[in-house]
């Protein structure tokens, strides 16, 4: 009975070869085994044949129909988000802000002028827009500026949406992205009552955080943040946090992780700078990509060591998302990392003036004076139609298999398409900023290297992170 291969991708590491396929499976072979796999399948050892069959790299001729059917199911399961009824709907109540972050991408205003805020007309149109969308499960995320400066508007939107939802019965969740410089008793009451989650930023120890995120409104942005994180926790609200890496805190990765541990966070999202929006002008905070990759890898190794040897419980979100893509048969659910691109379908943002964009990055491009990715405006009765046209463009241009540099990449079954970034590099930033691939290939390679060299303790940790 003859053996046949399914389509696969491969890449040689130092002492092994990684194979992947479109069903989301992977396997490591020795260089000798890979040579046999390429040249004479029948000479493979029984153990290797069994492994390759179980991961859908090989099939016997008589089982072709059954294997291809299972393969197809696995592929469709990984891409089930294309029929997903879930949406991350970001909304900007105000672009006023009480912080002066060195990497701010938005044209945030330091005054509280009325033109910074969403008008009542647009607020009402936004609430109607929520229920005009076909999605059944919607997470509304309040962004800014600093959205808490118009907490009255946030409360109004939540109450209005809740009232309208008596008719539509959608599953609505809420999150506010806030610097937590202020948190009043009334705000705590509303956050608890409507189960509004908190996402915040902690950029390291006090000195690093305050260099990255200064403010003239409080004596210490770090002290105010930590105080309000503790206040929220006492009220059974548990903020999540991310760190933005600049040239100022890049050399302090271990200290950043220690700060998260000391403040009892269970996750950290280590985020590189995006050269979008107003941050494009502040080149002093940037660094070479290879410096970020090196620092990120060292940070993950340090974090793994602290988890395994010091009994702490802290995971890094990007590393965990990639683990989920590799280990799970299901879609990972992270809207920014899908192929085909899910932006404009599973994710969109509404600016304070009602303009709709498929992602936060496309909003930042609008801050640079280019409206190519604008999908419509919630005040326009034709908004859903114009959104559909722009979504079709994103989908057409948002497939890795259409990108020459991605077609045969071993990481493509786990990677994602980003037509907005590709367009941005080609039309605004230029190749001198970074390649389309950027840090992605390095990150995937690093994660697979960690999987390959893992022992039982580390593998158990990785599976816990992947399932978190």
Relative strand content: 5-15%
Radius of gyration: 24 Å
CATH class of the largest domain: Alpha Beta
Largest sheet: 10 strands, mixed
Widest sheet: strand order? 12-11-10-9-8-7-6-13-14-15
What is the 3D form?
Answer: globular
Commentary on this structure:
This protein is 42% helix and 14% strand. With 468 residues, the chain is an alpha/beta fold. The protein has two domains: 3-78, no CATH class; 85-367, Aldolase class I (TIM Barrel, Alpha-Beta Barrel), CATH 3.20.20.70. The strands form three sheets. A ten-stranded mixed beta sheet has the order 12-11-10-9-8-7-6-13-14-15. Strands 2-3-4 form a three-stranded antiparallel beta sheet. Helix 4 runs parallel beside helix 5 (151-168) and helix 11 packs across helix 16 (456-467). The model has no long low-confidence stretch (mean pLDDT 91).
Task: Name a few traits of the molecule.
single chain, 468 residues, alpha/beta, TIM Barrel, 2 domains, ten-stranded mixed beta sheet, globular
How would you summarize what this structure contains?
With 468 residues, this protein is α/β, with parallel strands linked by helices. Helices cover 42% and strands 14% of the residues.
Topology:
Layout: E1 3-5, E2 9-12, E3 17-20, E4 26-29, H1 31-39, H2 46-54, E5 58-60, H3 64-78, E6 86-91, H4 120-132, E7 137-142, H5 151-168, E8 171-177, H6 185-193, E9 196-201, H7 206-212, H8 221-234, E10 240-244, H9 253-262, E11 267-271, H10 289-310, E12 315-316, H11 317-327, E13 347-350, E14 355-357, H12 360-367, E15 376-377, H13 383-397, H14 419-429, H15 440-452, H16 456-467
Parallel strand pairs: 6-7, 6-13, 7-8, 8-9, 9-10, 10-11, 11-12
Antiparallel strand pairs: 1-5, 2-3, 3-4, 13-14, 14-15
Helix pairs in contact: 4-5, 11-16
């Amino acid at each position: 009975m003859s053996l046949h291969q399914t389509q696969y991708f491969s890449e040689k590491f130092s002492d092994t070869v990684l194979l992947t396929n479109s069903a989301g499976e992977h396997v490591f072979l020795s260089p000798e085994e890979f040579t046999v796999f390429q040249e004479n399948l029948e000479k493979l050892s029984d153990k290797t044949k069994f492994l390759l069959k179980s991961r859908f790299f090989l099939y016997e001729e008589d089982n072709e129909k059954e294997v291809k059917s299972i393969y197809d199911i696995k592929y469709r399961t990984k891409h089930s988000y294309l029929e997903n009824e879930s949406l991350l709907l970001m909304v900007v109540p105000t672009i006023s802000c009480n912080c002066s972050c060195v990497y701010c991408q938005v044209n945030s205003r330091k005054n509280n002028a009325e033109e910074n805020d969403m008008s009542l007309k647009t607020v009402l149109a936004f609430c109607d827009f929520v229920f005009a969308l076909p999605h059944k499960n919607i997470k509304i995320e309040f962004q800014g500026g600093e959205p808490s400066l118009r907490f009255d508007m946030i409360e109004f939107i939540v109450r209005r949406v809740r009232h309208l939802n008596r008719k539509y019965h959608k599953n609505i969740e809420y999150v506010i992205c806030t610097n937590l410089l202020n948190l009043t008793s009334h705000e705590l009451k509303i956050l608890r009552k409507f189960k509004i989650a908190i996402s915040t930023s902690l950029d390291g120890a006090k000195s690093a955080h305050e260099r990255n995120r200064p403010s003239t409104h409080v004596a210490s942005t770090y002290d105010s943040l930590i105080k309000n994180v503790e206040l929220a926790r006492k009220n059974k609200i548990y903020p999540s946090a991310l760190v933005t890496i600049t040239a100022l805190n890049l050399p302090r990765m271990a200290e950043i992780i220690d700060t998260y541990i000391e403040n009892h966070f269970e996750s950290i999202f280590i985020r590189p700078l995006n050269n979008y929006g107003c941050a494009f002008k502040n080149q002093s905070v940037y660094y070479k990509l290879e410096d970020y990759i090196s620092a990120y890898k060292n940070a993950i190794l340090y974090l793994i060591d602290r988890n395994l040897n010091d009994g702490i419980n802290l995971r890094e979100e990007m590393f965990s998302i990639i683990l989920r893509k590799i280990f799970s048969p299901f879609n990972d659910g992270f809207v920014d990392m899908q192929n085909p691109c899910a932006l404009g379908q599973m994710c969109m943002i509404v600016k304070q003036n009602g303009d709709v964009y498929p992602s936060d990055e496309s909003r930042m491009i609008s801050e640079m004076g280019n409206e190519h990715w604008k999908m419509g405006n919630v005040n326009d009765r034709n908004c859903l139609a114009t959104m559909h046209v722009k979504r079709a463009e994103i989908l057409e241009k948002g497939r890795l298999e259409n990108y020459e540099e991605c077609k045969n990449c071993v990481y493509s079954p786990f990677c994602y398409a980003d037509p907005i970034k590709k367009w941005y590099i080609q039309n605004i930033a230029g190749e001198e900023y970074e390649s389309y691939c950027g840090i992605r290939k390095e990150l995937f390679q690093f994660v697979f290297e960690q999987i390959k060299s893992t022992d039982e303790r580390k593998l158990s940790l990785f599976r816990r992170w992947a399932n978190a």
